[in-house]
Specification:
single chain; mainly alpha; Rna Polymerase Sigma Factor, Chain: A; Arc Repressor Mutant, subunit A; 8 helices; 0% strand
Length: 196
């Protein structure tokens, strides 16, 4: 849920004046959505966490430069996106070694996780895999619109593109995701037939 502009402006003014609690409130409010955004872009929780922390350090140390005619979240996400792009270029290629290791449940041994949790985990994994098959721009548009509930106009401002282009990316992304997920579901059902 978006913070009211007046409240956000007051918190920013207090944070610029050195009020640590105001800075902490800004962090607490924006951190979950920023972390989720970066995780969906990168496909890696560790990368998302690192970039999220670095983005907040940059934002808080440059808060005096913020132009309050714009949304704070747009400024924050733009800084985070630049940090992500820089990190990706610096460390490319990055291989996800977590995908090669066994996932552990919350219990002591195998079989502790319920089938509902397992299904939800598979759906989440399939969606993340499908998102990673999209181009970077399309993936970002989908995440901002569907996960973070940003309006088209805000996405257009953030990504510096016309609203019509954002809508086109969103439409094409949905179609591609649908195809990827349908292929994934077909593939999984064939695997189940082989193992049954």
């Amino acid at each position: 849920m978006a913070m009211e502009r007046d409240i956000e402006r007051k918190l920013i003014a207090r944070a610029i004046a050195g009020d640590r609690e105001a800075s902490a409130q800004l962090l607490r409010h924006h951190q979950p959505s920023l972390r989720a955004y970066l995780h969906r872009l990168s496909g890696r929780a560790d990368v998302a966490e690192d970039i999220c922390q670095e983005a907040f350090v940059r934002v808080l140390s440059n808060l005096h430069r913020f132009d309050d005619r714009f949304r704070f979240s747009t400024w924050l996400f733009t800084i985070a996106k630049r940090l992500y792009v820089n990190a990706r270029q610096k460390h490319s290629p990055v291989f996800n070694t977590e995908a090669l290791s066994w996932r552990q449940g919350g219990g002591d041994g195998p079989g502790v996780q319920t089938s509902d949790d397992e299904v939800a985990g598979h759906v989440k994994d399939a969606l993340q895999d499908a998102l990673m098959e999209l181009g970077e721009v399309q993936r970002e548009v989908v995440v901002l619109f569907h996960q973070l509930d940003w309006p088209i106009s805000t996405i257009a401002e953030h990504m510096d593109m016309p609203e019509g282009t954002v809508k086109s990316h969103l439409h094409r992304s949905r179609q591609k995701l649908r195809k990827i997920l349908m292929a994934h579901a077909t593939h999984n059902s064939r695997l189940k037939e082989v193992w049954s």
